[in-house]
Design goal:
Shape: globular
Strand order of the largest sheet: 17-14-16-15-19-20-18-21
Strand content: 15-25%
Structural class: alpha+beta
Radius of gyration: 22 Å
Distance between the termini: 42 Å
Number of strands: 21
Number of helices: 15
Oligomer: single chain
C-alpha cells in the first residue's frame, strides 16, 4: 500500500468477528475448480436420518442443497454433511439433537458460515442452519433486545438505532450472526470500555446436547450460561439471547495516526486505554511501498452535535505526519466495511482461502514478539487483501471464563488475517497454515492464547493449555450438557 494512500485499513478491509472455530482436518489438495482445499473426510448423504421426528421446518438431504454447507469463509476445509436442518422453530432443533444424540450423529450449528477452518462443518452429520431464527424484539423502556441466534448484528443495529439505542460492542464485520459471535467471544473497537460481546448478555436460550431447551443467565443455570458464552458450541446451541442496549450517539469522528514502530504504536495505545479518551480504539500495520510497515492507531470519538476537540484528543500522542480525520454518522461508521466487502466479492478475493491467525499476547511480551514477526512478514505472507491488526484489550473488562486471555492486566490482540489467493504471489495455503502454527507456539510459550476465530492447527494438549484453570469447568460442562459428545466436533477440543 502506498504510504500516501488511505492509511485506515477500515477503508479497505476489517473482517475480525466471531463465530465458532477450532481445529482443522488433514488437507489433501487444492481444487482448482472450486478454488478450495479438500479434506480427507467424506460423508454419506442422508445416512442415519431415517425416521426423523416431525418438523416445523425442513431437513435437507439432496447433494445440491448440502453443497453450501460443505464450505465456509476460510475455503480451506470441506466436510460433507449427511443432512442440514432448516428449523421452523426452536422445537425442531431440540427434536433433532435429541434424535442425533443416542445415534452418535455429530451436530454443528452454523450461522453465516464465517468460520475459517471448518469449525461449523460435520462429516456425515447434521448441520443446523441458524439463519431462520432471525427475530429481533427491542424493548426501549428496558433498553434490551431479545434476538434469535440467527439474526445479524447489522439487523440489530438498524432495529435498535430506530429507538436511539445500540448494543455496546460490535465486531468489525457486522454481517455475522449473533449466536455465532456469542459462541466465540465477539471483540471490537469498544471492547476496551465494555468488554466482549459475551460480557454483554443478560440471558440465553440454549438447546443442550440432550435436546433440552434451557433459559439461563448469570443467576439461573449459571454453569450452562458461562459454558455457552465463548464455549464454541460445545455444550449447546444458542437459540436466542437477551442483550443490553445503551444510548446511540449521532456521529463518530475517526482519527488515523501513523507511527514508525510497533513500540511507538503500543505506547500510544496504552496511554489512551488508561485515560479512556476514545470511544472506539483499534490498530493495524499497513505495508509501505518499497517494503516495510507503517503502524496505525485508529481512534474514534462519538458525539452528538458539536464535534470533539482534535488537539485535546490527539495532540499528545507523538504520531508522525498529518493525521487523517473523518466524520461519519454512527451507523455508517459501525457498518463501514460494507463497501470493502462488496469490492472483494466483485474481484473474487472474498472466495479465496483465508488462513487467519488471531492470538492474545501478554502486554510485557507484545512489543518484542510483534516486532519480530513484522520484521520478517511480507505481503506474500498475508496476500494482497490481507490485514494485520494490533490493539489493546484490558483483561479486567473480560469476564466470560471461556474467553481465554493471558494472565496480564493488559493484553494485545494480534491478528494476521491472511488471504491465499492462488492466482497471485501469495504463499500457498498450506504454508500459511504452517506459519500460523509456528507463530502460535511461540506465543503460547510466552503465555499467549488464541482468539479462536482463525486457522491454527491445534492438538489436544494445546486446547488444555489454552483453557488452563478453566479446563476442568469446561470439561465438566461438556460431559453434563453434551453427554453423547455430538456437538461441534469441528472444533477438535474434546476429540
Amino acid at each position: 500500500m502506498d504510504a500516501g494512500a488511505d492509511l485506515s485499513r477500515r477503508g479497505f478491509m476489517r473482517a475480525l468477528g466471531g463465530a465458532t472455530v477450532g481445529a482443522g482436518v488433514l488437507v489433501t489438495g487444492f481444487d482448482n475448480a472450486t478454488r478450495a482445499w479438500a479434506s480427507d473426510t467424506a460423508g454419506a448423504h442422508g445416512d442415519g436420518f431415517d425416521h426423523v421426528p416431525r418438523l416445523d421446518g425442513w431437513l435437507l438431504l439432496d447433494s445440491a442443497d448440502l453443497a453450501p454447507f460443505e464450505d465456509d469463509f476460510g475455503h480451506i476445509v470441506h466436510r460433507v454433511p449427511g443432512a442440514v436442518l432448516e428449523p421452523g422453530s426452536v422445537r425442531d432443533i431440540a427434536a433433532m439433537i435429541e434424535f442425533c444424540g443416542p445415534r452418535r450423529i455429530a451436530v454443528a450449528p452454523r450461522g453465516q458460515g464465517h468460520q475459517t477452518f471448518g469449525q461449523a462443518q460435520v462429516s456425515g452429520g447434521l448441520v443446523i442452519d441458524m439463519s431462520p431464527l432471525s427475530s429481533i424484539t427491542v424493548d426501549p423502556a428496558a433498553r434490551t433486545a431479545t434476538v434469535g441466534a440467527g439474526a445479524l448484528w447489522s439487523a440489530l443495529l438498524a432495529a435498535s438505532t430506530a429507538h436511539g439505542l445500540t448494543p455496546p460492542v460490535f465486531t468489525d464485520y457486522i454481517e455475522l450472526s449473533i449466536g455465532g459471535t456469542l459462541s466465540a467471544g465477539g471483540l471490537g473497537g469498544t471492547t476496551h470500555h465494555f468488554g466482549a460481546q459475551v460480557d454483554n448478555v443478560i440471558e440465553l436460550e440454549v438447546v443442550t446436547g440432550t435436546g433440552e431447551v434451557v433459559r439461563c443467565s448469570a443467576s439461573r443455570h449459571a454453569d450452562l450460561f458461562h459454558a455457552a458464552l465463548a464455549g464454541l458450541g460445545q455444550v449447546g446451541v444458542i437459540t436466542s439471547a437477551t442483550l443490553p442496549l445503551i444510548p446511540a450517539p449521532a456521529s463518530a469522528r475517526q482519527y488515523t495516526l501513523t507511527f514508525p514502530s510497533v513500540s511507538a504504536l503500543t505506547a500510544a495505545q496504552r496511554k489512551v486505554v488508561r485515560d479512556g479518551r476514545f470511544d472506539w480504539l483499534e490498530g493495524a500495520a499497513n505495508a509501505v511501498t518499497g517494503g516495510g510497515w507503517q503502524f496505525v492507531l485508529e481512534g474514534t470519538a462519538y458525539y452528538d452535535g458539536t464535534p470533539p476537540n482534535d488537539q485535546t484528543l490527539i495532540g499528545d500522542l507523538g504520531y508522525e505526519g498529518t493525521p487523517q480525520i473523518q466524520d461519519f454518522s454512527y451507523t455508517d461508521f459501525v457498518d463501514d466495511l460494507a463497501p470493502a466487502v462488496a469490492f472483494l466479492k466483485s474481484t473474487g478475493e472474498w472466495f479465496d482461502p483465508h488462513p487467519w491467525l488471531n492470538i492474545f499476547l501478554p502486554d510485557a511480551a507484545t512489543d518484542a514478539y510483534v516486532t519480530g514477526v513484522m520484521d520478517k512478514l511480507t505481503l506474500a505472507d498475508i496476500g494482497a487483501s490481507g490485514v494485520v491488526l494490533l490493539y489493546p484489550v484490558p483483561s479486567g473488562k473480560l469476564h466470560a471464563p471461556l474467553l481465554r486471555t493471558p494472565d496480564s492486566e493488559l493484553t494485545f490482540l494480534f491478528a494476521v488475517l491472511r488471504t491465499a489467493a492462488p492466482d497471485t504471489d501469495a504463499l500457498p495455503t498450506a504454508t500459511m497454515l504452517e506459519g500460523n502454527r509456528a507463530l502460535y507456539l511461540e506465543a503460547q510459550a510466552l503465555g499467549g492464547t488464541q482468539y479462536p476465530v482463525g486457522s491454527i492447527p491445534m492438538t489436544s494438549r494445546d486446547w488444555r493449555i489454552q483453557y488452563g484453570d478453566a479446563w476442568r469447568f469446561f470439561s465438566a460442562a461438556k460431559h453434563r450438557y453434551d453427554p453423547h459428545g455430538i456437538l461441534a466436533p469441528g472444533q477438535g477440543i474434546f476429540s
